[in-house]
Amino acid sequence: GEDVEQSLFLSVREGDSSVINCTYTDSSSTYLYWYKQEPGAGLQLLTYIFSNMDMKQDQRLTVLLNKKDKHLSLRIADTQTGDSAIYFCAESIGGTSYGKLTFGQGTILTVHP
Amino acid sequence: DARVTQTPRHKVTEMGQEVTMRCQPILGHNTVFWYRQTMMQGLELLAYFRNRAPLDDSGMPKDRFSAEMPDATLATLKIQPSEPRDSAVYFCASGLTGQGRNTEAFFGQGTRLTVV
User: Fold this and answer.
1) Can you name the residues that pair with B23 across neighbouring β-strands?
2) d(Cα B89, Cα A56) in Å, to the nearest integer?
């Protein structure tokens, strides 16, 4: 079945890099996602990676996927105070349940000046 | 500016009352999700629909919760009777899904429900 795990908290200094980690269990995952949630708002898609890729870069964001270990990470370069938010990883699987999105519990990122 | 619209944004109700939350998905999207977010449980999938048909509602307490899509522009989540443990933020999201295709889900702002 689907199970997505994340560490709950991460605190970094402004200007440093942040690395948020996620593990998942479903080997039939087709896409993996990173969403951001700011206070009082819904979730916003940041980036995603197809399961046959191992890296994707998008401006300050780098996603690394280790399919063998079922490990996904999001690196934010030059972290800013505006990056403070909750970050969720999510997976979607193939087969008859295609499209279904299962989320981790979220990592609270705090950026200190 | 296409967006998912949820109403109401906030709802306070007494235990035992019926609560109906509404969602207008983005026009053209074929998939609608309902999630519940609490501090303790995080983001839980309650139900999802594709082309208005319910595909998976295993995350939803069947005795009191019901989800429907009366038409392509409206999804509803109903709780009857409501209980204090239902207090949470309920999110609706919509997307365009297809076999082998990326699911980019767009989230509404959520309905913050408080049951007293």
Assistant:
1) B6, B75
2) 32
**Alpha-carbon span A113 to A87, nearest angstrom:** 19
Q: Using one digit for the tens of pLDDT, what is the confidence trace for B26-84?
A: 999 999 999 999 988 889 999 999 999 998 888 898 899 999 999 999 999 999 999 99
What six digits make up the tokens of A71?
């490990």
- Which of A88, A92, A94 is nearest residue B43 as measured by Cβ atoms? A88
Tokens of A64: 């690394």
Determine, for residues B107 and A102 on separate chains, whether the beta-carbon distance falls below 8 Å.
no
Token reading at B47:
């139900």
d(CA B65, CA B78): 6
Q: How far apart are CA A113 and CA A10, in angstroms?
A: 14
- Residues in A closer than 8 angstroms to B10, CB to CB, are none
The alpha-carbon gap from A112 to the nearest alpha carbon of chain B, in Å, equals 23
Tell me phi and psi for residue B60, to 5 degrees: -105, 130
